[in-house]
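Entry type: protein chain
Record version: 2
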Amino acid sequence: MTLGIYPVMALMAAVSILIMYAAVSDIHTMKIRNWVSITMVGLALARAVLAPDTIDPVMDLVWAGSVFAIGVAIWHIKPIFGAGDVKLISAFMLWAGSAYGFEFLVATAIAGGVASIFVVLVVAFLKIFDLQLAAVRRAVPALSYDAAAPILKRAFPYGVAICVGAHLVLYYQALSWGVF
């Protein structure tokens, strides 16, 4: 590291907060705003300036560009995830780079699969045991099949899976830089 670990750790904290914001935004609105991905790219560029020995610029751009191209192609052919997800994954790939890009994609895919299975099981449980208790429905409206049914009709907020994969990479980067 050129300037020490602390400026890069501050950037990591900003990336972490930004990814968590994207996940929460995706849960609530099913949208990830463009400014989130643009800011992520800016933070990756700031890291390149502050700690140039932690990146491989050519391979990092190849990874991010490849992921973006493949993601856009999948989005156009069969939109299994949104355009905001594609942009966020590609922007974080600049941060993860060639060193952790594959791990990020695998962790994100596994987290998305586990979360999707969990949602399907919860909805199935609610459909089978449609909770009829009026007090429970008033206290927690989401505990009924009628409230959970829209989940089956709309896409899963994949920003949550991206958040899990990104935080795993951030953790491993911090380990490799001797923070923990």
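Comment: Residues 5-176 form one domain.
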